[in-house]
Protein backbone atom coordinates (compact mmCIF):
# COMPACT_ATOMS: atom_id res chain seq x y z
CA UNK A 1 0.00 0.00 0.00
CA UNK A 2 1.29 3.47 -0.89
CA UNK A 3 1.37 5.77 2.11
CA UNK A 4 0.15 9.36 2.12
CA UNK A 5 3.70 10.38 2.98
CA UNK A 6 5.05 8.69 -0.15
CA UNK A 7 2.35 10.28 -2.32
CA UNK A 8 3.04 13.71 -0.88
CA UNK A 9 6.78 13.34 -1.47
CA UNK A 10 5.93 12.69 -5.12
CA UNK A 11 3.77 15.85 -5.25
CA UNK A 12 6.69 18.14 -4.41
CA UNK A 13 7.77 19.10 -7.95
CA UNK A 14 4.26 20.38 -8.76
CA UNK A 15 3.95 22.07 -5.35
CA UNK A 16 7.28 23.84 -5.87
CA UNK A 17 6.32 25.00 -9.38
CA UNK A 18 3.01 26.39 -8.11
CA UNK A 19 4.63 28.07 -5.10
CA UNK A 20 7.40 29.72 -7.11
CA UNK A 21 4.90 30.87 -9.73
CA UNK A 22 2.78 32.49 -7.01
CA UNK A 23 5.59 34.08 -4.99
CA UNK A 24 8.23 35.26 -7.46
CA UNK A 25 6.00 38.14 -8.65
CA UNK A 26 6.01 39.46 -5.04
CA UNK A 27 9.71 40.19 -4.87
CA UNK A 28 9.12 43.94 -5.11
CA UNK A 29 6.76 43.81 -2.10
CA UNK A 30 9.41 41.97 -0.13
CA UNK A 31 12.02 44.54 -1.16
CA UNK A 32 9.78 47.38 0.01
CA UNK A 33 9.55 45.84 3.49
CA UNK A 34 13.20 44.89 3.51
CA UNK A 35 14.25 48.44 2.73
CA UNK A 36 12.68 49.51 6.03
CA UNK A 37 14.65 46.99 8.08
CA UNK A 38 18.22 45.94 8.88
CA UNK A 39 18.02 42.46 10.34
CA UNK A 40 15.74 39.43 10.55
CA UNK A 41 14.02 37.53 13.33
CA UNK A 42 12.62 34.10 12.42
CA UNK A 43 9.69 32.80 14.46
CA UNK A 44 8.89 29.08 14.18
CA UNK A 45 8.67 25.68 15.85
CA UNK A 46 9.41 22.11 14.74
CA UNK A 47 9.87 21.53 11.02
CA UNK A 48 9.26 25.22 10.37
CA UNK A 49 12.13 26.02 12.74
CA UNK A 50 14.41 23.86 10.60
CA UNK A 51 13.28 25.79 7.53
CA UNK A 52 14.08 29.00 9.42
CA UNK A 53 17.66 27.80 9.89
CA UNK A 54 17.96 27.74 6.10
CA UNK A 55 16.49 31.25 5.98
CA UNK A 56 19.02 32.44 8.54
CA UNK A 57 22.02 31.17 6.58
CA UNK A 58 20.61 32.53 3.33
CA UNK A 59 20.10 35.97 4.88
CA UNK A 60 23.52 36.15 6.49
CA UNK A 61 25.66 34.50 3.79
CA UNK A 62 23.98 35.94 0.70
CA UNK A 63 21.98 39.02 1.76
CA UNK A 64 24.44 40.38 4.32
CA UNK A 65 21.80 40.73 7.05
CA UNK A 66 22.12 39.61 10.63
CA UNK A 67 19.44 37.00 11.35
CA UNK A 68 18.44 35.09 14.44
CA UNK A 69 15.86 32.56 15.63
CA UNK A 70 13.26 33.86 18.06
CA UNK A 71 12.47 32.38 21.46
CA UNK A 72 8.66 32.60 21.44
CA UNK A 73 8.46 32.18 25.21
CA UNK A 74 9.90 35.69 25.60
CA UNK A 75 6.62 36.89 24.12
CA UNK A 76 4.13 34.26 25.25
CA UNK A 77 5.38 33.20 28.69
CA UNK A 78 7.62 35.99 29.97
CA UNK A 79 5.61 38.66 28.13
CA UNK A 80 8.60 40.98 27.81
CA UNK A 81 8.81 43.84 25.34
CA UNK A 82 11.95 44.21 23.19
CA UNK A 83 12.87 47.07 20.88
CA UNK A 84 12.45 45.53 17.41
CA UNK A 85 12.67 48.73 15.42
CA UNK A 86 14.47 47.94 12.16
CA UNK A 87 13.69 44.22 12.40
CA UNK A 88 11.86 42.14 9.81
CA UNK A 89 10.08 39.38 11.75
CA UNK A 90 9.37 36.32 9.61
CA UNK A 91 6.98 33.77 11.08
CA UNK A 92 6.67 30.28 9.61
CA UNK A 93 3.80 27.89 10.26
CA UNK A 94 2.51 25.29 7.83
CA UNK A 95 -1.05 25.55 9.09
CA UNK A 96 -0.88 29.24 9.96
CA UNK A 97 -2.95 28.35 13.01
CA UNK A 98 -0.40 27.60 15.72
CA UNK A 99 -1.45 30.07 18.39
CA UNK A 100 2.03 30.54 19.86
CA UNK A 101 3.46 31.57 16.48
CA UNK A 102 0.58 33.93 15.71
CA UNK A 103 0.90 35.51 19.16
CA UNK A 104 4.65 35.92 18.80
CA UNK A 105 4.33 37.58 15.38
CA UNK A 106 1.71 39.96 16.78
CA UNK A 107 4.06 40.70 19.70
CA UNK A 108 6.90 41.43 17.25
CA UNK A 109 4.72 43.92 15.39
CA UNK A 110 3.76 45.59 18.69
CA UNK A 111 7.50 45.84 19.46
CA UNK A 112 8.10 47.77 16.23
CA UNK A 113 8.99 45.06 13.70
CA UNK A 114 7.72 44.79 10.17
CA UNK A 115 6.24 41.35 9.64
CA UNK A 116 6.09 38.54 7.07
CA UNK A 117 4.17 35.27 7.33
CA UNK A 118 5.09 32.10 5.43
CA UNK A 119 2.26 29.57 5.59
CA UNK A 120 0.44 26.92 3.63
CA UNK A 121 -2.76 27.75 5.46
CA UNK A 122 -4.14 30.23 2.94
CA UNK A 123 -4.69 33.98 2.96
CA UNK A 124 -7.35 33.61 5.67
CA UNK A 125 -5.08 31.81 8.14
CA UNK A 126 -4.62 33.79 11.38
CA UNK A 127 -0.88 34.05 10.77
CA UNK A 128 -1.39 35.48 7.29
CA UNK A 129 -3.93 37.95 8.64
CA UNK A 130 -1.53 39.11 11.37
CA UNK A 131 1.35 39.92 8.98
CA UNK A 132 2.18 42.97 6.88
CA UNK A 133 2.94 40.56 4.02
CA UNK A 134 1.82 36.94 3.66
CA UNK A 135 3.78 34.55 1.44
CA UNK A 136 1.29 31.72 1.02
CA UNK A 137 2.78 28.50 -0.29
CA UNK A 138 0.90 26.24 -2.69
CA UNK A 139 1.56 22.76 -1.36
CA UNK A 140 -2.09 21.79 -1.13
CA UNK A 141 -3.54 19.63 1.63
CA UNK A 142 -0.98 17.49 3.45
CA UNK A 143 -2.45 14.41 5.13
CA UNK A 144 0.60 12.67 6.55
CA UNK A 145 1.71 14.04 9.90
CA UNK A 146 5.42 14.26 8.89
CA UNK A 147 5.76 17.39 6.77
CA UNK A 148 7.27 16.91 3.32
CA UNK A 149 5.84 19.17 0.62
CA UNK A 150 4.92 21.89 3.11
CA UNK A 151 8.57 21.95 4.22
CA UNK A 152 10.11 22.20 0.76
CA UNK A 153 7.65 24.90 -0.28
CA UNK A 154 8.60 26.83 2.87
CA UNK A 155 12.21 26.65 1.69
CA UNK A 156 11.09 27.94 -1.71
CA UNK A 157 9.33 30.86 -0.04
CA UNK A 158 12.49 31.63 1.93
CA UNK A 159 14.53 31.56 -1.27
CA UNK A 160 12.14 34.13 -2.76
CA UNK A 161 12.40 36.15 0.46
CA UNK A 162 16.17 36.11 0.06
CA UNK A 163 15.89 37.45 -3.48
CA UNK A 164 13.67 40.26 -2.24
CA UNK A 165 16.26 41.13 0.40
CA UNK A 166 18.96 41.47 -2.23
CA UNK A 167 20.76 38.12 -1.97
CA UNK A 168 23.74 37.89 -4.30
CA UNK A 169 22.48 34.82 -6.13
CA UNK A 170 21.17 33.98 -9.59
CA UNK A 171 17.38 34.06 -9.64
CA UNK A 172 17.34 31.81 -12.72
CA UNK A 173 18.66 28.92 -10.61
CA UNK A 174 15.26 28.67 -8.95
CA UNK A 175 13.71 27.56 -12.23
CA UNK A 176 15.67 24.30 -12.07
CA UNK A 177 14.56 23.28 -8.59
CA UNK A 178 11.33 21.38 -9.44
CA UNK A 179 13.04 19.34 -12.15
CA UNK A 180 15.94 18.47 -9.83
CA UNK A 181 13.51 17.34 -7.14
CA UNK A 182 11.73 15.21 -9.73
CA UNK A 183 15.04 13.52 -10.62
CA UNK A 184 15.78 12.80 -6.96
CA UNK A 185 12.38 11.20 -6.45
CA UNK A 186 13.01 8.96 -9.46
CA UNK A 187 16.60 8.07 -8.51
CA UNK A 188 17.32 8.81 -4.83
CA UNK A 189 20.29 6.47 -4.41
CA UNK A 190 20.86 3.68 -1.88
CA UNK A 191 17.59 4.05 0.04
CA UNK A 192 17.04 0.34 0.70
CA UNK A 193 20.64 -0.32 1.76
CA UNK A 194 20.67 2.60 4.19
CA UNK A 195 17.22 1.70 5.54
CA UNK A 196 18.53 -1.80 6.21
CA UNK A 197 21.59 -0.37 7.95
CA UNK A 198 19.46 1.86 10.17
CA UNK A 199 16.83 -0.75 10.98
CA UNK A 200 18.95 -2.47 13.62
CA UNK A 201 20.54 0.49 15.41
CA UNK A 202 19.26 2.45 18.42
CA UNK A 203 20.39 5.84 17.18
CA UNK A 204 22.07 7.89 14.48
CA UNK A 205 23.90 11.19 14.22
CA UNK A 206 22.83 13.44 11.33
CA UNK A 207 25.32 16.17 10.52
CA UNK A 208 25.81 18.99 8.05
CA UNK A 209 27.15 22.52 8.16
CA UNK A 210 26.27 25.92 6.74
CA UNK A 211 23.49 25.83 4.18
CA UNK A 212 23.10 22.05 4.67
CA UNK A 213 22.67 22.31 8.45
CA UNK A 214 18.92 22.86 8.06
CA UNK A 215 18.67 19.57 6.14
CA UNK A 216 20.54 17.69 8.85
CA UNK A 217 18.15 19.03 11.50
CA UNK A 218 15.07 18.25 9.41
CA UNK A 219 16.18 14.71 8.52
CA UNK A 220 16.96 14.01 12.18
CA UNK A 221 13.48 15.23 13.11
CA UNK A 222 11.84 13.05 10.47
CA UNK A 223 13.72 9.95 11.68
CA UNK A 224 12.66 10.72 15.26
CA UNK A 225 9.00 11.38 14.61
CA UNK A 226 8.29 8.76 11.91
CA UNK A 227 10.78 5.98 12.80
CA UNK A 228 11.17 6.50 16.58
CA UNK A 229 14.93 6.54 16.09
CA UNK A 230 17.16 8.47 18.49
CA UNK A 231 18.49 10.83 15.83
CA UNK A 232 20.70 13.75 16.80
CA UNK A 233 21.00 16.64 14.31
CA UNK A 234 24.26 18.56 14.65
CA UNK A 235 26.55 20.90 12.80
CA UNK A 236 29.69 18.95 12.10
CA UNK A 237 31.63 21.69 13.89
CA UNK A 238 29.67 20.90 17.06
CA UNK A 239 29.92 17.17 16.42
CA UNK A 240 33.72 17.36 16.42
CA UNK A 241 33.70 19.17 19.78
CA UNK A 242 32.70 16.07 21.69
CA UNK A 243 29.53 14.28 20.53
CA UNK A 244 31.53 12.37 17.89
CA UNK A 245 32.37 10.05 20.77
CA UNK A 246 28.89 8.52 20.37
CA UNK A 247 29.59 7.45 16.78
CA UNK A 248 30.52 3.77 16.75
CA UNK A 249 29.51 0.49 15.13
CA UNK A 250 26.06 0.79 16.74
CA UNK A 251 25.59 4.49 16.00
CA UNK A 252 26.15 5.44 12.36
CA UNK A 253 26.34 8.93 10.94
CA UNK A 254 24.37 10.49 8.11
CA UNK A 255 26.37 13.32 6.55
CA UNK A 256 24.68 15.98 4.45
CA UNK A 257 26.33 18.36 1.98
CA UNK A 258 25.71 20.28 -1.20
CA UNK A 259 27.72 19.22 -4.21
CA UNK A 260 29.81 22.40 -3.94
CA UNK A 261 30.73 25.03 -1.38
CA UNK A 262 33.15 25.62 1.48
CA UNK A 263 31.69 22.99 3.84
CA UNK A 264 32.08 20.06 1.44
CA UNK A 265 35.77 19.25 2.19
CA UNK A 266 35.06 19.12 5.92
CA UNK A 267 32.11 16.79 5.36
CA UNK A 268 34.27 14.43 3.30
CA UNK A 269 36.94 14.44 6.02
CA UNK A 270 34.26 13.66 8.62
CA UNK A 271 33.00 10.69 6.57
CA UNK A 272 36.54 9.31 6.46
CA UNK A 273 36.92 9.79 10.22
CA UNK A 274 33.59 8.09 10.95
CA UNK A 275 34.49 5.06 8.86
CA UNK A 276 37.93 5.00 10.44
CA UNK A 277 36.20 4.65 13.82
CA UNK A 278 34.41 1.53 12.58
CA UNK A 279 31.03 3.21 12.07
CA UNK A 280 28.91 3.42 8.95
CA UNK A 281 28.85 6.80 7.19
CA UNK A 282 25.84 7.44 4.98
CA UNK A 283 26.05 10.38 2.57
CA UNK A 284 23.25 12.66 1.42
CA UNK A 285 24.48 14.72 -1.53
CA UNK A 286 28.07 15.89 -1.63
CA UNK A 287 28.76 14.54 -5.11
CA UNK A 288 31.00 11.66 -6.03
CA UNK A 289 33.73 12.54 -3.50
CA UNK A 290 31.46 12.28 -0.47
CA UNK A 291 29.85 9.13 -1.87
CA UNK A 292 33.29 7.55 -2.31
CA UNK A 293 34.20 8.34 1.29
CA UNK A 294 30.94 6.88 2.63
CA UNK A 295 29.45 3.45 3.20
CA UNK A 296 26.36 4.16 1.09
CA UNK A 297 24.99 7.33 -0.46
CA UNK A 298 21.78 9.13 -1.32
CA UNK A 299 21.81 11.41 -4.32
CA UNK A 300 21.95 15.19 -4.13
CA UNK A 301 20.57 17.84 -6.48
CA UNK A 302 22.52 19.51 -9.25
CA UNK A 303 21.93 22.92 -7.71
CA UNK A 304 24.16 25.68 -6.31
CA UNK A 305 24.78 25.56 -2.59
CA UNK A 306 22.22 28.28 -1.80
CA UNK A 307 19.42 26.13 -3.22
CA UNK A 308 20.72 22.66 -2.41
CA UNK A 309 18.58 22.26 0.76
CA UNK A 310 15.43 22.28 -1.40
CA UNK A 311 16.63 19.04 -2.95
CA UNK A 312 18.82 17.46 -0.27
CA UNK A 313 15.92 16.68 2.04
CA UNK A 314 13.98 14.72 -0.60
CA UNK A 315 16.06 11.50 -0.55
CA UNK A 316 16.01 11.80 3.24
CA UNK A 317 12.20 11.89 3.17
CA UNK A 318 12.17 8.77 1.01
CA UNK A 319 14.60 7.07 3.41
CA UNK A 320 12.39 7.97 6.38
CA UNK A 321 9.27 6.58 4.73
CA UNK A 322 11.03 3.37 3.69
CA UNK A 323 12.60 2.86 7.13
CA UNK A 324 9.28 3.42 8.91
CA UNK A 325 7.61 0.74 6.80
CA UNK A 326 10.55 -1.63 7.35
CA UNK A 327 10.12 -1.14 11.11
CA UNK A 328 6.36 -1.76 10.92
CA UNK A 329 5.47 1.86 11.67
CA UNK A 330 2.77 3.81 9.83
CA UNK A 331 4.64 6.96 8.75
CA UNK A 332 1.38 8.79 8.11
CA UNK A 333 0.35 8.78 11.77
CA UNK A 334 3.27 8.52 14.23
CA UNK A 335 2.26 7.97 17.83
CA UNK A 336 1.64 11.01 19.98
CA UNK A 337 1.64 13.55 17.13
CA UNK A 338 -0.99 15.71 15.45
CA UNK A 339 -0.81 17.74 12.27
CA UNK A 340 -1.17 21.04 14.13
CA UNK A 341 0.76 21.31 17.39
CA UNK A 342 -0.28 23.93 19.92
CA UNK A 343 2.20 25.05 22.58
CA UNK A 344 1.76 27.59 25.36
SSE topology:
Layout: H1 4-10, H2 12-23, H3 27-34, E1 39-43, H4 46-62, E2 67-69, H5 73-76, E3 87-93, H6 99-110, E4 114-119, H7 126-130, E5 133-136, H8 149-164, H9 177-186, H10 191-198, E6 203-208, H11 213-227, E7 230-235, H12 236-239, E8 253-257, H13 264-276, E9 281-285, H14 287-293, E10 296-298, H15 308-326
Parallel strand pairs: 1-2, 1-3, 3-4, 4-5, 6-7, 6-8, 8-9, 9-10
Describe this protein's structure:
With 344 residues, the chain is of the alpha/beta class. It has 2 domains: 4-169, Rossmann fold (3-Layer(aba) Sandwich), CATH 3.40.50; 187-326, Glucose-6-phosphate isomerase like protein, domain 1 (Rossmann fold, 3-Layer(aba) Sandwich). Helices cover 46% and strands 15% of the residues. The protein contains 15 helices and 10 strands. It has helices spanning 4-10, 12-23, 27-34, 46-62, 73-76, 99-110, 126-130, 149-164, 177-186, 191-198, 213-227, 236-239, 264-276, 287-293, 308-326; strands spanning 39-43, 67-69, 87-93, 114-119, 133-136, 203-208, 230-235, 253-257, 281-285, 296-298. GO terms for molecular function: carbohydrate derivative binding. Keywords: Repeat. This is SIS domain-containing protein. One of its GO terms (biological process) is carbohydrate derivative metabolic process.
